[in-house]
Task: structure prediction
Amino acid sequence: MRVNAGNLKKGEFVFFQGEICQVQKADFYSPGKGAALMKARLKNLVSAKNVEYAYKSNEQIEVLDVTSVEMQYLYKDNENLYFMDERTFNQSSLSISVVGEITRFFKEGEKMFVYMYNDKPLTIRPPMSVKLKIVEAEDAAKGDTVSGAKKPVKVETGATVMVPIFVKVGETISINPETGEYTGRV
Amino acid sequence: MKIVTQIKNLENYKIYLQVEKAVHGFMEKNNYLKVDLPVLSPALIPESYLEIFETEFNYFDKKEKLYLTPSPEIFLKRLLVAGVGNCYYLGRAYRNSEPNSDWHSSEFTMLEFYKLGINYLEMAEEVLKLLQEISNKVKNPSFAKATEGKQKLKFDRWEKYSVTEAFEKFAGIKKEELFNEKLFIKKAKNKGFNIDNTGYEDLFSQMLAAEVEPKLGVSGYPTLLYDLPKQMASLAKLNDDGLTAQRCEFYINGLEVGGFCTELNDYKEQQKRFILEAKKRKQNKMIDHTIDKGFVKALKYGLPFCTGAGIGFERLVMIFSNTKSIDELKLISIK
Result:
């Protein structure tokens, strides 16, 4: 689909210098002299490297029509994450560096959506929230009752999350995987 | 669009007020006259890169088009010609067709000030003093931080780069390539920029935004980028090299906060530029506003030797409140 670069949005996919990239950030920027720009941070989905680019906001660019397929997350090794399409039993893999920080909240066996372009997996569509059990937490220090006080806890995937001090081991919490923030108890 | 109440931004807004107070204090101490100005004007300076807001005055059968001012320049320069002396405006400015983004808001606050008898580099020292004053007066418990390294931002000196040095260091563009339009466009093409229907000015802005700006003002000091190519500063006095103009921009945390130039006191050049810009506006099917002929008349009378500085006030406050977007400063936001 062709769009004005000025309408480019975070999460969309474009070709940049012949390779597929995902828009990490897109901000309108008018230097006041010369054309208005769309400043974009593009992540190359092969090398996992970010590149900064500035489109003219009225420049026509091709946003790729991608599909998302529900898959089961199987496991990971040092480099890749492995998924299976439960209808076809086809397996796919994605590089951890491409998917990024968010992988620390992935639990084996969970269902996720994988973006596909021409039958090739690109990256994960981040879930709005993930629900994970707390496996390690210190008890809140006595007297520490200031509202908003937080403590670090470890969840079942091994990631560390800051939570309000009243949250305890064994409880399941919801987390926004993109920001890593605690959003509530389940 | 809708109206959104954002009381969560109260602490940021309080810093906004502190910065505002510090600016007024600095200006008063340094004998700049505070000038309140209209934001509705019956005529404007034609600018091909700024779209405007148009409205109408109505009284029975009397109707007249009015425009929200995209900058206070139109009024301040008249006053300078009339002999007001050093002066400043801190107030609203409006730019249409600029969607809200982290660094943009179609309704925003502009600090514009003029000092007589100094050039752009002397103005750089003045701006530095202003930043120091704000830094001393604003009480933000988490202080103004550099995004890289998270150290406290210091304002006791500039990190300085000429545009030539900055393009060589951060974009690998040599001086002979930077000022030769053909060579520059070729270089941009090799870097992957789309050069179709795109001229030198646009490609310069694109490369500056993509490759140079993210590296400016990130070392813990504000960065002064000076001597822009003359094509990028049509209202600034030219340097003796014939290639660059006496214009600077300054950056903090990769963001352009403001700019200033030694004002070109040449009404013929201004008039030429007006005609060209008005033509471009027509070609681009932009709002056909009344052109302010009185502005040219005033310049013909004679603008005193001075340097004018423009600062995006919300961007300035973003630095001192460690916020990432203009919206985080607003208690009421239209979005």
